[in-house]
């Protein structure tokens, strides 16, 4: 009933509204669609529908808003809804068609490897255009800068699907959250290739809560060593690491000292002596590293 009244109010007077936050209300698909069908959400700058009981049935209107050439929607938070792969596919279809979205949060939405396939098409779209799929005058850059996929069961194969998009020469993506996504060391080589791409601009990567272990960090450090890697923040909290990972990270920083400024390692089993060795780098002007978050427990 509340959504009916809100939809009516927005229908009659919404010309100056730029932000709409419905979060932590049991709006449900029926309520959401009642609002979205009476009010053009493409005129918003920010839409927050975190934890609103939404499913795939709410995604059609959102996807249509993303497709609009006149859309001003730049920030979209759909986290903690049961969109699953089918709903995410509709969102990705909207982004692929035409999208000015800069920030997308789909944390804890039930997305799996299948959903990553839809996202890969979006992230790689400009690369496809560059390969001759369309004339240069028809290029339409996906402007996504901040993507939160955390707390979805993407697994290694899902992340491998989207890794090519990180090497997109016209990508705008700067922040990627893949924490708690059921990852192992098996996807780290592809991620390393993505963050060290010559044209890539990824600056923040969160891999916390994944079972990467030392083997995974060793693979990631291949990318960190590359002078093309522009990563400024790397989060590896609770990744099953030992002090061997610190050795790999120190070696990488000595090869490429100019970019990484913030490193999060809390929740791993690290020796005090190795932590201190890493801390020493923050005292040298040669390194950009200035913030380290660690725990020996």
Number of helices: 11
The CATH H-level superfamily of the domain at 111-293 is Ribonuclease Inhibitor
Oligomer classification: single chain
Shape: elongated
Could you state the order of secondary-structure elements as H and E? Answer: HEHEHEHEHHEHEHEHEHEHE
Which strand order spans the largest sheet, edge to edge or round the barrel? Answer: 1-2-3-4-5-6-7-8-9-10
Radius of gyration: 21 Å
C-alpha termini separation = 51 Å
Write down the CATH topology of the domain at 111-293: Leucine-rich repeat, LRR (right-handed beta-alpha superhelix)
Task: Record the SSE blueprint.
Elements: H1 2-12, E1 19-21, H2 28-38, E2 46-48, H3 59-67, E3 75-77, H4 84-97, E4 103-105, H5 113-123, H6 125-133, E5 146-148, H7 155-163, E6 175-177, H8 188-195, E7 204-206, H9 213-225, E8 233-235, H10 243-255, E9 262-264, H11 272-280, E10 291-293
Parallel strand pairs: 1-2, 2-3, 3-4, 4-5, 5-6, 6-7, 7-8, 8-9, 9-10
Helix pairs in contact: 1-2, 3-4, 4-5, 5-7, 7-8, 8-9, 9-10, 10-11
3D architecture notes:
A 10-stranded parallel β-sheet has the order 1-2-3-4-5-6-7-8-9-10, with no helix packed on it. The chain is built from 11 helices and 10 strands. The longest helix has 14 residues, at 84-97. The chain has a domain at 111-293: Leucine-rich repeat, LRR (right-handed beta-alpha superhelix). It starts with a helix and ends with a strand. It has 297 residues and is α/β, with parallel strands linked by helices. It has helices at residues 2-12, 28-38, 59-67, 84-97, 113-123, 125-133, 155-163, 188-195, 213-225, 243-255, 272-280, and strands spanning 19-21, 46-48, 75-77, 103-105, 146-148, 175-177, 204-206, 233-235, 262-264, 291-293. It is elongated, with a radius of gyration of 21 Å. Helix 10 (243-255) runs parallel beside helix 11.
